[in-house]
Structures are given as C-alpha cells and as structure tokens.
C-alpha cells in the first residue's frame, strides 16, 4: 500500500519539478477501477498532516470530470448520478463536473458559440484519397441525444466507433479543463493500458503522434498538460489497492463498444486479449512494452500547429500521396475519360476558377492517417452528423491554408 502511494507521489514530483506549471488539476474519471484509484491517490497526496509541513504540495487543487456515456449504452443508465453521489460522499473536497457525451453538439464545446454549420458529403474523387464536402447551415435544431445515437449507428466497424468516441471524450475533457482554468489533465492509464494502447494505436496508423498519445507528460499539444501518473502501476496492482483501501465498492463497471464482444470485434479488443494472454504466461510482457513506450520521442520536424481536425493531434503533410504508394487500387481502363475537375456541369464558368471545388473542402487534407482510414467507413449520414468541433476545425484550417496560398509569393523564407 505505502509503496503504491509512494510510487504515485514520486512520479508526480519527478514530472512536475522545475519550471513546469503548477495549478488546478482535472481528474478524468470514468468510474472504472483505475480512475477511482487515481482520485483516491490524489486525495491522499493532497492531505498534509501538521508534522508534514515540509512535504511538497504537488497537487494544490483538483476537480473531477466525468463524461456520461449512458446515451450510447443503456447499461450505463443512472451511472453518472451514482458516481456523483459516491464522489460527494467520499471526496467532498473535490468539485464534481459531469457532462453527457451528447453535449459535444452544444455551443459550449466549440470556439465560436454561434457556429452552426455542418458538412455535407459531395462524394470521393481520385479513388478514396479525396473526400469532398461543402459547408451548409443548420436549418432546424435536432435533439443532441438522437443526433449522437444516429452518428454512431451509421458507423459499421467497431474500431471506427471506438476511435470516434475517444476523440469526442478527449475534446470535451480539454474544453472543460480550459474553461475551469486547469493546467493539467490526469488520466488513469495503468501500465497494462499503456501497453495495449501502444500496440493497438500503432496497428491503426497512429505511429506519427504515438509518442504524444501515450506519453507520461505531454505539454506541447493542447495548451493543457496531459499527465499519466499511473503509468508504472499494473492493472493487478490497481485492483489490489482498491480492495485493501475499501474503495472497490465505488467502482462502476465500465462499458463500451468492446464489452462482452469477441476478441476479433475490433483492433483494441484484439490487442487487449493478446496482451492479457501474454501477461498470464509471461509476466514481464507489460513492463517490456512500457519500457519501449518510455523511449519514444516525437519527430524533430513535427509541426504542433498542424493538427488533425478530429483527434486534435499533429498530422503529417502529404499523407494522400503516401497512401497511394502503399495501397493497392484498381487501375481504371485506358478509355476512361478524365473528370471535369469537380465541375458541376451547370455552365457556371467553373473553368475560370478552380472548378466547383472553390466552394468545397477535401476533408482528408485535414485528417491524420489514422482518422483518414476510419473516415473510409463513414457514409454521408455520418459526415453530416459529425460534431461541430470537427467542422469548425476543418473550416478554420482550410481558411488558413487558402490565405497562406494567396500570400505565399510575398513571404520571405528563412533561407533568404
């Protein structure tokens, strides 16, 4: 017990030394075993006895944030109210914030509260390397819960569902942290979870941003620091700590798209089954993978300002061309006529501009490779129902790129 708490405290002291920002911390709490343990550990290190005045105060203030997913999973109905009551009873000094996940469609989770556009799919060109869409204004209000359910029902593959759900929760947590004035978000990713994420996210094509996705301390991406102070705790240790601390009764059984599903239902579920199976026979599996995680560093030429509109992580340029080289596609016949470069055929002098594409946006140009792969599983309904933050990010990035192209001839390069 003391070793477990001491390990958590030593990680925080090591991560938050020197010039690192100090201030309020947002504790991401799903109600599962790891997040309950995270809340309890944070409470313990914040409590200072009279004879411990010299103890370093690594977390001066904390707030708990829970994203209620009951709109997607009926078995989670009422779980948010239950968790709120348990947190208020056992951790009264922590403010508890809860947002239904459908709130991602509300104005409080976009930069401009008056933003009311959505993307209307115009189909793909050049195989599936270009997915064109146009902006349209919402003409009527839709129930956010129904919109969320329709969004996920329109996606067929579990992997794409799981990824989109994670991106939405990440966006909401970051927005809440910024609104509450938090300098850090603490995630309760254990060593076991870190090992699973490393393998599964690499398989899904997130290698470019992987060092940031699973890093113990990431202050470079979101304007809010991301910490994973439980990165040295195995899931077994978490369970034992919860049991002997008497907080296992606070745990709300987690439920997601992979719960009670076969191992091959998604990449995440398959990787989880693979890592847990290896760990049973070879107990050093997780620690070996986690040591590899600790050695990963971001690319030196990574542009942190060029981010994916969906997952918000840095993305590479020229992904479309790279995909063409690694993807087997059907070669069109020699007698196939070239397209009209996006012309609508309505005799509106499209040839004098850039075709009808002047009013469209290639969504793939604003997505990282992993999100582009998932985007192939989206249909027109899915695209139309995407959360407003994705549409807003896409519009902002396309506008900035268009302005940059207009003035690039007048810019002075660093070499000049």
TrEMBL record:
GO terms for biological process: protein urmylation; tRNA wobble position uridine thiolation. GO terms for cellular component: cytosol. Pathway: tRNA modification; 5-methoxycarbonylmethyl-2-thiouridine-tRNA biosynthesis. Pfam families: CTU2 (PF10288). GO terms for molecular function: nucleotidyltransferase activity; sulfurtransferase activity; tRNA binding. Signal peptide: none annotated. It is found in: Cytoplasm. Keywords: Cytoplasm, tRNA processing. InterPro entries: CTU2, Rossmann-like_a/b/a_fold. It comes from the Eukaryota. HAMAP family: CTU2 (MF_03054). Plays a central role in 2-thiolation of mcm(5)S(2)U at tRNA wobble positions of tRNA(Lys), tRNA(Glu) and tRNA(Gln). May act by forming a heterodimer with NCS6 that ligates sulfur from thiocarboxylated URM1 onto the uridine of tRNAs at wobble position. Prior mcm(5) tRNA modification by the elongator complex is required for 2-thiolation. May also be involved in protein urmylation. Belongs to the CTU2/NCS2 family. This is Cytoplasmic tRNA 2-thiolation protein 2.
């Amino acid at each position: 017990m003391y070793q477990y708490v001491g390990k958590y405290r030593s990680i925080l002291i090591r991560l938050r030394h020197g010039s690192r920002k100090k201030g309020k911390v947002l504790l991401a709490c799903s109600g599962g075993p790891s997040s309950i343990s995270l809340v309890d550990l944070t409470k313990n290190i914040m409590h200072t006895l009279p004879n411990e005045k010299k103890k370093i105060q690594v977390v001066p203030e904390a707030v708990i944030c829970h994203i209620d997913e009951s709109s997607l999973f009926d078995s989670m109905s009422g779980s948010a109210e239950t968790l709120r009551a348990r947190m208020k009873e056992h951790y009264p000094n922590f403010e508890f914030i809860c947002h239904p996940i459908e709130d991602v469609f509300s104005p409080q989770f976009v930069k401009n509260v008056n933003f009311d556009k959505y993307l209307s799919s115009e189909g793909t060109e050049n195989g599936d390397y270009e997915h064109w869409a146009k902006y349209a204004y919402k003409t009527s209000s839709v129930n956010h819960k129904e919109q969320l359910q329709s969004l996920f029902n329109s996606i067929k593959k579990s992997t794409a569902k799981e990824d989109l759900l994670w991106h939405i929760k990440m966006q909401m947590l970051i927005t809440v942290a910024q609104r509450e004035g938090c300098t850090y978000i603490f995630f309760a990713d254990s060593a076991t979870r870190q090992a699973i994420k490393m393998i599964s996210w690499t398989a899904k094509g997130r290698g470019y941003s992987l060092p940031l996705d699973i890093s113990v301390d990431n202050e470079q991406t979101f304007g809010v620091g991301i910490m994973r102070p439980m990165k040295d705790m195995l899931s077994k240790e978490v369970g034992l700590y919860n049991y002997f601390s008497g907080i296992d009764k606070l745990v709300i059984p987690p439920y997601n798209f992979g719960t009670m599903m076969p191992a091959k239902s998604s990449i995440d579920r398959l990787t989880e089954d693979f890592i847990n199976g290896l760990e049973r026979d070879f107990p050093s599996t997780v620690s070996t993978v986690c040591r590899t995680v600790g050695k990963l560093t971001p690319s030196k030429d990574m542009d942190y300002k060029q981010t994916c509109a969906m997952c918000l992580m840095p993305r590479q340029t020229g992904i479309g061309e790279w995909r063409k080289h690694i993807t087997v596609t059907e070669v069109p016949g020699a007698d196939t006529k070239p397209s009209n470069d996006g012309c609508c055929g309505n005799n509106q002098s499209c040839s004098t501009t850039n075709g009808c594409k002047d009013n469209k946006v290639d969504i793939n140009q604003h997505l990282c490779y992993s999100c582009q792969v998932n985007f192939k599983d989206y249909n027109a309904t899915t695209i139309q129902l995407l959360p407003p933050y994705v549409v807003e990010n896409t519009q902002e990035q396309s506008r900035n790129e268009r302005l940059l192209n207009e003035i690039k001839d007048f810019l002075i390069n660093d070499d000049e």
